[in-house]
Amino acid sequence: MSPENRPPRRRTRLTRRGRLTILFGTLLALGAVALVPLLLRDRSQPEQPRRLLIPEGWRAAQIYAAVDRELQVPPGSTAAAAKAAGLNLPAEAKGNPEGFLFPATYPVTSRSTPASVLAQMVRTAHLTLASRAVALGSKAHGMTPYQTATVASIVQAEAETPADMGKVARVVHNRLARSMPLQMDSTLNYALNRSTVDTTLDDTRIDSPFNTYQRQGLPPTPIDSPGLAAMSAAVRPTPGDWLFFVTVKPGDTRFSRTYEEHKRHVAEFNRLRAAAHAT
User: What is the reported pLDDT for 140?
Assistant: First the structure.
């Protein structure tokens, strides 16, 4: 057909959908060239750490379970690592990290392991115990840093509020100075692996080195992970001559100098507990 007789050429205009289809096809064709550098750039970005929160007053068993969950490792992995990791613990600890897994917020990534997380907690505890205030306070009370951590762990467990910590610490020091058994329910709870304010007479008779009703002096290890406030109270207790205390009701802890006064407070506590159980 001669050019003169050909029909006029139609100009094809792509719709928006058509343009997108061609673009998508082009990207598919160039995928091996274009996407690989993109993936490499993504991998080069630093990993955003996750946060592992360890609250004050947690026991080692609770911390092990939290690390297992956060790192998504089988239950028991962190407990096993605590025994095999060779943590930098005081000789007095005899390999038991209780009290030296410092409560704080720790960054964890895909490269974190139970051993590396535990080691970071122990390093943080050592930094706290090595501070000038704690070192001088321990020496003033004739204690080693490990014994101070043990006192602080009792303060952490027994004090209902931060304001009570200094007074609880004073009771501990006053009793130790008089060679009186500490008689702390928190140490019984640790021995019995529980947490309660209801202590029975049978509880006070259990055969355990953590039974501070039957044994004088400090328990053999800390009973939890104390925080900075409890550590400060342990080395700088509130001045006073109290020997007893009981939390009669939430927000109302009574400190006493004499056993007679303490018995009156305990009787009130028992009345309130009995009424609560009755309802």
Answer: 94
